[in-house]
Amino acid sequence: MIEKTRGLNVDCIAYDLEDSVIAAKKVEARANICDFLNEPRPPGIGERAVRINSIASGLAEDDLNEVLKSSCPDTLVLPKVNCASDIAFVTDMMKHHQCLRHKSRPISDPQCSPIGILALIESAKAVSNLSSICKASPYLVGLIFAAEDFALDLSLTRTPSLSEFLYARSAIVTECRAHELPSVIDLVCTSYKGPEGKKVLEEECVGGKNLGFNGKQCIHPTQIEITQQAFAPSETDLAWAVRISIAGRKADSQGRGAWTLDGKMIDAPVMGKAKRLLDRAQACGMDVEAANQKWQHQEPE
User: Fold this and answer.
1) One-character DSSP codes across the chain
2) Which of 19, 102, 277, 299 fits as disulfide partner to 241, beta carbons 3.0 to 4.6 Å?
3) Contacting residues for 38 by C-beta, under 8 A, at least 6 apart
4) Which residues lie below 8 Å from residue 108, measured CB to CB, with a gap of 6+?
5) How far is residue 121's CA from residue 275's CA, in Å, rounded to a whole number?
6) What is the C-alpha separation between 213 and 228, in angstroms, rounded?
7) Cα gap 130→133, rounded to integer Å
8) What pLDDT tens digit does each residue of the chain (301 aa) get?
9) Is 284 left (phi over 0), alpha (psi -120 to 50) or beta?
10) Model's pTM, two decimal places?
11) Could you give the residue numbers annotated as active site?
């Protein structure tokens, strides 16, 4: 299964030591993942993450002792985070192992880069502790909403509208933004087969993006392209942001704090949204320079 990931084109792939590995295979799974991490990174994979077992399971320490000795994973995914102390435990172990592993390496060595932590939010207790969780570690780079375990904890039934998760999802996005965590990853879409599965995935992606999520978990390769397209800016979005940016610079030079474009008022918050969209377009590999050339003569109205 690990070998099949070599041909994927993804922002981040998580190799699992938790739910997909039975207890009798944990040691073997650790060894397999560490061997894979020590090999050259496949060209289509942006980040390589490892989902370890939860702190409460008693297996996390063994996972970390092995994984942190391997060639540096980019991210650790920590499941079932209920409070800040769960992340503090991982942070302490990361600091210890990074010191041992990197003490003889120059700071310019890319393997010295800090490993990030992504925390899975799966319970009512976790949602109630979001603020302290977000402040628990300088290594924390984002939160992931785990809908199925959350539904189990609250005895909820998942519905197509996902309305039963609205409070938790909104709270996760809000806390991530408040604490300037860059990644906020939405729930898994359990439908992935056939046209109906694709339709459900597209709808969930749009809904998550509209709530403020900037990514989504995928459980099957067929979900990747749809998800990437949904969370990347469209060509229409790119053109709008470029026009705002160009006209905004001209408005600034004219001493105008507010102006209009296409009959709509443009002010500082709109300019900020356009800048963020352009940053995302750049990260997604879109041709921002070509759009700038096309709209170079845009004027503020």
Assistant:
1) --GGGGG--EEEEEEESSTTS-GGGHHHHHHHHHHHHTSPPPTTEEEEEEE---GGGT-HHHHHHHHTTSS--SEEEE-S--SHHHHHHHHHHHHHHHHHHHTTS-TT-GGGSPPEEEEEE-SHHHHHTHHHHHTS-TTEEEEEE-HHHHHHHHT----TT-GGGHHHHHHHHHHHHHTT-SEEEEPPP---SHHHHHHHHHHHHHHHHHHT--EE--SSGGGHHHHHHHHSPPHHHHHHHHHHHHHHHHHHHTT-S-EEETTEEE-HHHHHHHHHHHHHHHHTT--HHHHHHHTTT----
2) 277
3) 70, 71
4) none
5) 30
6) 13
7) 5
8) 788 888 888 999 999 999 999 999 999 999 999 998 888 888 889 899 999 999 999 999 999 999 988 776 899 999 999 999 999 999 999 988 875 554 444 444 455 567 899 999 999 999 999 999 999 999 999 999 999 999 999 999 999 999 999 999 999 999 999 999 999 999 999 988 899 999 999 999 999 999 999 999 999 999 999 999 999 999 999 999 999 999 999 999 998 888 999 999 999 899 999 999 999 899 888 999 999 999 999 999 8
9) alpha
10) 0.87
11) 267
For residue 77, the cross-strand partners are 51, 118
Distance between CA atoms of residues 141 and 12, nearest Å: 13
- Cβ atoms within 10 Å, residue 161: 10
Q: Which two tokens stand for residue 245?
A: 């940016």
114, 139 contact by CB (below 8 A): yes
Total residues found in the chain within this entry: 301
- Alpha-carbon distance of 136 to 295, in angstroms, equals 44
* pLDDT tens by residue, 228-270: 999 999 999 999 999 999 999 999 999 888 899 999 999 989 9
